[in-house]
Amino acid sequence: MDLETTDKLLTTTRSVRKRLDLTRPVEPEVIERCLEIAAQSPSGSNRQGWHFVVITEPELRQGIAALYHRAFMEYFGSGRAAPGSPVAESALYLAERFHEVPVLVLFCYEGRVETGPPMAQAGLYGSILPAAWSFMLALRARGLGSAWTTLHLRYEREAAALLGLPENVTQAALIPVAYATGGDFRPAKREPVSERTHWNGFGKRREEE
Description:
Blueprint: H1 3-12, H2 28-38, E1 50-55, H3 58-76, H4 86-97, E2 103-110, H5 118-141, E3 144-146, H6 156-163, E4 169-179
Antiparallel strand pairs: 1-2, 2-4, 3-4
Helix pairs in contact: 2-5, 3-4, 3-6
């Protein structure tokens, strides 16, 4: 396995917003192949209870985008976002153009765990989120961009009604997909991993030999 290529894929798969090509169609075959790759992800007890809702019909995209935009503006106005920051400006750009993104993919899993114990919650989300991330990696390898979004979940029931989702299905992530424009992507700035790594107990550092 080519580690250099693999490491580049893993470290440069970003949430793409401003560099999504909103005018270029995305072939259904590309989405289907990337979902086949996503379906190789692990799931609890190998149940594979996932469902992938691909949204390309303009009226449905408009409906989901309206829910996302409403939730985004509520979040943006709450003071939790930092107005003027690059991330906030990028997020606002996407929110205002969400309906123009050619493909939206909603990752769902069978079951509801709102009142369940932490183990049940971790098990459900741990069975669908790896698939969403694998999907984004597969897209990146093919020249497409995507972004991890969850704000529409403020109106999860409205989205479920719009898409005809059964009541026992949990929505986990909504991924806008389009071809990426511009040059290549670089690794993001991150805190040193050593400051967030604990060895054999929280707050403990690895002993140097």
